[in-house]
């Protein structure tokens, strides 16, 4: 019997080793290269799980939204762009089903997108790490045992932990800086997702309304029972209004959570940078002109470009507050429309790039046609008169003499001259922008102090 058990153990070991042996024989490519998977847990504090316990329906809604964020990667990476209409409609239906019947907990990205996780785990680490920041900052505002005046202390503590304890935090600098640093606007994939998968894209535009306005509702309601009612009202507006008529642009934190953006500019910007990273990654995965290796190289480049870099914290509070008294419970026309901070940034970047792309100048007619296409490309879906393909392809058809460097269009490469030109453009226009005034929680009259 002992001999039989020993042989059985040996056979079992061989059966487990054989797949590993086959793996070692496989050609080693960038697409299946092993990535470091070390992670860091959340920071312990007196607020842990307060959002889950106090606002469980909102917590679960967030988990449903993040299901869609995760699985969308696999849908796009395994899809053919020629199948985009059917794929878009099918995934929209699946996302809504998960939104109305959300999971009880929030698993990591790779559970919902195992295929993409094999080649883009750095991306998933960056997403999951920032989702951790979302939950912890919600926890702090939800925690009744943390006095209102101490919310800032605990928020700064978790933001510091987020920036320092892992190598993939989103930058605390405004999207005005990181979008220029990423230099994606004239890459051949830019706008593909929003143009060809508009239902899925607009689902996320709606989700990126919900995430920040939850913070703002808490800021307006304080620690007392008013907070429970405020979060419930936000969920009601989301289902009754926002999902039915979704925003036509990605909303930035400064637009729909101006008070929380003053409490923690660093967190507000990190969330914007994550939301934009989602869209860029979807563009790359939806683009059918690159191999998997090229897509992986470009995603890694963008993740790094939009990550925290030394000195970013000095820029954190340098952004405007277009609507400092914004009412998160009022889903108005300005919130829903195309005009806003994200598209303002895009238009500015375009003007900054033009001298390098068209050194010999352009005609007024050409400028007009390009701006028309730019506006349509930044809108979800395809409109009458809109040219097929990405923004770069549309512009190239209007300006065939446009000069594009190999770095501008290549996978995993950065056109440093273009990036520096755009950053210089920001400095000239906005370098002297005053920092937003910090909010004084102990003096703030917009909250209830029923501790």
Q: What are the low-pLDDT stretches, counting only 5+ consecutive residues below 50?
A: 1-32, 445-451
- Mean pLDDT, to the nearest integer, reads 91
What does the radius of gyration come to?
23 Å
Task: Give the termini separation.
Answer: 69 Å
Overall number of domains: 2
Query: Which structural class matches the secondary elements?
Result: mainly alpha
Helix content: 55-70%
Total count of strands: 0
Strand content: under 5%
User: Tally the helices: what do you get?
Assistant: 22
Shape: globular
Please, could you describe this protein's structure?
There is one protein chain. The protein starts with a helix and ends in a 21-residue tail after the last helix. The chain has two domains: 50-344, no CATH class; 347-430, no CATH class. The protein is an all-alpha fold. Helix 3 packs parallel to helix 15 (265-286) and helix 7 packs antiparallel against helix 8 (151-164). It has helices spanning 2-25, 50-54, 56-78, 84-100, 109-112, 114-119, 121-142, 151-164, 175-182, 192-196, 198-221, 226-242, 253-256, 258-263, 265-286, 292-305, 333-336, 341-357, 364-378, 391-398, 406-409, 416-430.
Based on the model shown, name its key terms.
single chain; 451 residues; 2 domains; 62% helix; 0% strand; disordered N terminus
